[in-house]
Design a protein that fits this description.
By secondary structure, the chain is an alpha+beta fold. About 35% of the residues lie in helices and about 20% in strands. The chain has 15 helices and 15 strands. The chain has helices spanning about 1-15, 25-30, 50-55, 85-110, 120-135, 160-190, 190-195, 195-215, 220-225, 230-240, 240-250, 310-330, 350-360, 370-375, 405-420; strands spanning about 60, 70, 280-285, 300-305, 335-340, 365, 385-390, 395-400, 445, 465, 475-485, 490, 495-520, 525-555, 560-565. Strands 9, 10, 11, 12, 13, 14 and 15 form a 7-stranded antiparallel beta sheet that branches. β5, α13 and β6 (about 365) form a beta-alpha-beta unit. α4 (about 85-110) packs antiparallel against α6 (about 160-190). The longest helix is centred in the N-terminal third of the chain and has 31 residues, at about 160-190. It is globular and about 90 Å long.
């Protein structure tokens, strides 16, 4: 657990100094400086102001009946200034609210099933309450919430608590330094001491303005223009081998032996007992939708394929999985597809059933909408394939595309181990389908995961007019005409156009809605796609060899675009 705490602490420290935190820093600075160094309020006495009472001479009686004499009143110490604890309250609010919303809020909201962006709305509401609390102290305390959602899984363990709190603490430390700097400035600058009320109102107003700026994504342009100066450190800490092993096993102690095995090694190893396929929303391609119990498959070799239907990498690997299912099913192989959604629309059982049928998948498919089985297998990739021997032990896993010849060889070895007398069919012979070097990466069309965007700054959640820039760099994309940018997808409006400069053999895009989409390559029209219904992957280009080009799309109003993938 100590390693996990250190990962969370360092991850929080890096996050707190990254560009994504910059919009809240003015509010933290001003919130830490309100009322600094002011003495407790004192009212006037019956004989005049306290200062006058301290300065005048007083007639005091003399002992033994002597006459009274005038003596100087002993000096009175000025009241001790109040200690400004606002910075600590602000940072405490960060830790407490982050921990609550991450550990409990997500679980409660997941159980209730409200709209998926409810946490974001609650977070913006808390930010507005923070501003009101600064302007009108009785309304709310000085709470600055940094809300992050790890996923709606509904499982809380000591490791998750430790990771969450250590991350929150790591984020809080730099913010506390900034808030204390605000307090120190306010204590030393006379303008802060004499105008604390006005500054507090200014801080509250700034916080409310920040909430509305976040609501309309006005801060994204600033964050995007700044260099990602923490990316290298973040990759070093959070994406290291040690971190991946620690973070991938947070949800189930029964699968720790999986850490003993490595991705894609060319041999079979004992990787521990296979976790059950649990937490499934629905089963497809089984009798009466009954679940598949791995313990009932003892004596068979099992291939578990983690995939999702809109992932082009998964779709490219499906022909190999289908071939193995057809070739080796009678020899003792059982294939199970675990559909692990990446987008909200991929959680719809009707969409998955429709796409499973269109893709020709006939083996059992488990809809792992809560990623329960995904976590039990410590998985982080789509696609991912796990081989389980006849005794229920994981013997091999491979992440991503490729290694198909290797995987088929290991399937044949496990089948012979399970039944030395088995007669295996010829190899399927599809080959390894090597990946293309320098290919444009998967590109998401949603505001949280958008990369490589250039052009008019995005406006979140409402229609806005965009214009193409003079040039779009390789792997960059841009918008023209009217678009609505949202957390799940971009929706086309009047005269909408979308362009991306890519390098690949083929380009694909997940689209939804009703209407045509015109495709142009380097300014020349190549085809028109008719989009119909739920989000589906559409092939835009298909060349014999990798090429570099400018792909432009002209969708009808109302068409939704989710993610580009390239082959």
């Amino acid at each position: 657990m100590l390693t996990l705490v250190l990962i969370g602490l360092l991850g929080g420290l890096i996050t707190a100094v990254s560009p994504c935190i910059l919009p809240v820093l003015p509010a933290v600075f001003l919130a830490g400086g309100g009322d600094a160094g002011l003495p407790p309020e004192t009212g006037p006495s019956e004989t005049g102001p306290p200062s006058a009472a301290r300065d005048r001479d007083v007639a005091r009686p003399v002992p033994d009946g002597g006459s009274a004499v005038l003596v100087d009143d002993p000096p009175v110490r000025p009241p001790h200034p109040r200690r400004n604890r606002r910075p600590y309250a602000v940072v405490t609010g960060i830790v407490v609210s982050f921990g609550f919303f991450t550990l409990l809020g997500v679980t409660i909201i997941s159980a209730l099933g409200p709209p998926q962006d409810i946490l974001r709305r609650l977070g913006l509401g808390v930010l507005v309450m923070t501003g009101l609390g600064l302007i009108f102290p009785p309304v709310a305390g000085p709470v600055l919430a940094a809300i992050a959602v790890a996923g709606a899984r509904g499982q809380i363990s000591s490791d998750i608590v430790a990771l969450t709190l250590s991350f929150a603490l790591g984020t809080a430390i730099p913010l506390l330094v900034f808030a204390l700097a605000g307090r120190r400035v306010s204590a030393r600058v006379a303008a802060f001491r004499t105008r604390s009320r006005g500054l507090r109102i200014a801080a509250g107003t700034l916080t409310i303005v920040l909430a509305f700026a976040l609501a309309f994504d006005a801060t994204t342009a600033l964050q995007r223009t700044l260099p990602d100066y923490t990316a290298a450190a973040q990759k070093e800490v959070e994406d290291s081998d040690t971190a991946r092993r620690q973070l991938s096993g947070l949800y189930d102690d029964s699968n720790k032996e999986l850490s003993a095995c490595e991705d894609g090694v060319n041999e079979l190893r004992p990787c521990g007992q296979a976790p059950p396929v649990n937490g499934i929303t629905k089963w497809l391609n089984t009798p009466d939708g009954q679940p598949v119990d791995l313990t009932a498959l003892r004596g068979k070799v099992v291939l578990i394929d983690f995939w999702t239907y809109s992932c082009i990498n998964c779709r490219r690997s499906l022909p190999h999985v289908r071939d193995w299912d057809r070739a080796y099913k009678s020899s003792g192989l059982q294939v199970i597809g675990v559909h692990s959604p990446e987008f909200a629309f991929e959680k719809d059982p009707g969409n998955v059933a429709d796409q499973t049928r269109k893709l020709g998948v006939g083996y059992p498919v488990a809809l792992d909408n809560q990623l329960a089985t995904w976590n039990a297998y410590r998985n982080r990739f789509r696609p991912a394939k796990y081989l389980i021997d006849a005794n229920g032990t994981v013997r091999h896993f491979t992440f991503g595309e490729g290694r198909y010849d290797q995987t088929e060889d290991l399937i044949r070895t496990l089948l012979r181990q399970a039944d030395p007398g088995v007669k295996l069919p010829p190899r399927t012979g599809r080959g390894n389908d090597r990946l293309t070097a320098g290919r444009t990466p998967e590109t998401y069309l949603n505001t949280p995961r958008l990369r490589g965007y250039t052009g008019t700054p995005l406006m979140l959640g409402r229609p806005a007019a965009y214009r193409f820039p003079a040039a779009i760099p390789l792997n960059g994309l841009s918008l023209d005409g009217t678009w609505t940018a949202a957390y799940e997808q971009f929706t086309a409006g009047d005269n909408a156009r979308l362009a991306i400069t890519y390098r690949a053999k083929n380009a694909n895009l997940v689209l939804a809605g009703e209407g045509p989409v015109t495709v142009l390559i380097d300014g020349k029209k190549t085809k028109t796609i008719q989009v119909h219904g739920a989000p589906t992957l559409y092939r835009l280009t298909d060349d014999d060899h990798p090429r570099k080009g400018r792909l432009e799309l002209r969708p009808a109003p109302g068409i939704q675009a989710f993610a580009f993938t390239f082959g």
